[in-house]
Specification:
With 254 residues, the protein is an all-alpha fold. It has 2 domains: 92 residues, no CATH class; 140 residues, 3 Solenoid (Pectate Lyase C-like), CATH 2.160.20.80. It is 38% helix and 0% strand. It starts with a helix and ends in a 17-residue tail after the last helix. 27% of the residues are buried.
Length: 254
């Protein structure tokens, strides 16, 4: 009876391959088909199923790895593209819109403000055009700027005391609170210029063209207006004294 029980147990329990069997099977002269069939015969259905599951899992992991790699590459390309676009936008903002005027900007066409030394040096080199320039508060006392063009220039609080401004164009220029005391403005063009609260004491304005100029609060005490183009209404807004020479050539307070 013990012999029969042992035999039955051996029939139910599959025979496990020994290390020697595996070693012999792997290093023998059998071909690959023989090795595969030998392993299949000595493996249980559960082992085969586990092996198949592991194979599927390994394959799935390989596909996920490939997908992740591709996704990372795509994200890298996208990030690179976005970075390039951002740099382009920043560069465009820094460079700003192009203008046809070159050295004029969009804010009223006012050009960059030079220093007093630059104005004198530029004039000495023969340049006379200072249109739209901002020369406010510059110290240009006794400077020779005769015949220069300051059309629509900004000259607020500029110091031109004793300057030579003969035949100079100040059309539509802003000269509010400027110092033009004793300046030579003979035959100067000042049409529509803003001369409010400007100091013109002792200035030579003979034959100057002051049509429609704003002279409210301007100081014309001692100024020479002989032959100047100016109306009585304009003079009534300015300050004059007995030393002021009127367009008629006569002195007196207006």
């Amino acid at each position: 009876e013990p012999y029969m029980e042992s035999l039955a147990q051996s029939m139910v329990t599959p025979v496990k391959p020994t290390r020697e069997d595996n070693t012999a099977g792997n290093s023998g002269n059998l071909n690959s088909n023989g090795n595969n069939s030998g392993r299949m015969m000595h493996s249980s259905p559960t082992a085969r199923m586990a092996a198949a599951i592991r194979a599927r899992q390994a394959k799935a992991m390989g596909m996920d790895s490939a997908g992740m790699t591709g996704g990372s590459a795509r994200r890298g390309v996208t990030r690179t593209t976005l970075t390039t676009m951002e740099r382009s936008r920043i560069s465009a903002r820094l460079s700003g819109p192009s203008t046809g005027g070159g050295d004029s900007n969009s804010a009223g066409n006012t050009k960059p403000k030079p220093s007093a030394e630059e104005v004198v040096l530029t004039y000495g080199k023969g340049k006379r055009d200072f249109t739209f320039h901002d020369l406010s508060t510059l110290h240009l006392a006794k400077a020779n700027l005769s015949g220069a063009n300051f059309h629509q220039a900004r000259l607020r609080k500029v110091n031109l005391q004793g300057a030579n401004l003969f035949n100079t164009d100040f059309g539509r220029a802003s000269l509010t609170q400027a110092n033009l005391k004793n300046a030579n403005l003979a035959r100067a063009y000042l049409s529509h210029a803003d001369l409010q609260n400007t100091d013109l004491r002792g200035a030579d304005l003979s034959y100057a063209y002051l049509s429609n100029a704003n002279l409210r609060g301007a100081n014309l005490c001692g100024a020479d207006l002989t032959g100047a183009k100016i109306t009585d209404a304009q003079l009534s807004q300015a300050r004059t004294n007995w030393a002021t020479i009127h367009p008629s050539g006569k002195r007196g307070i207006w």
